[in-house]
């Protein structure tokens, strides 16, 4: 999320909320990062 926020020039919490909305609507899937189990 941090990299996406940086690329969008937005704050990370805003990007996280939008990603959650997109996930609930079925537009995106969040999967675990293979290199960092804490990230998705």
Descriptive account of the structure:
There is one protein chain. The chain is an all-alpha fold and 40 residues long. Helices cover 50% and strands 0% of the residues. The chain contains 2 helices and no strands. The chain is flat.
SSE string:
HH
Whole-angstrom Rg: 11 Å
Q: Which structural class is indicated by helix and strand composition?
A: mainly alpha
Described by the principal axes of the CA atoms, the overall outline is flat
Distance between the termini: 8 Å
Short description:
The chain is mainly alpha-helical and 40 residues long.
Topology:
Elements (H helix, E strand, L loop, with lengths): L1 H7 L3 H13 L16
What tags apply to this protein structure?
mainly alpha, 40 residues, 50% helix, single chain
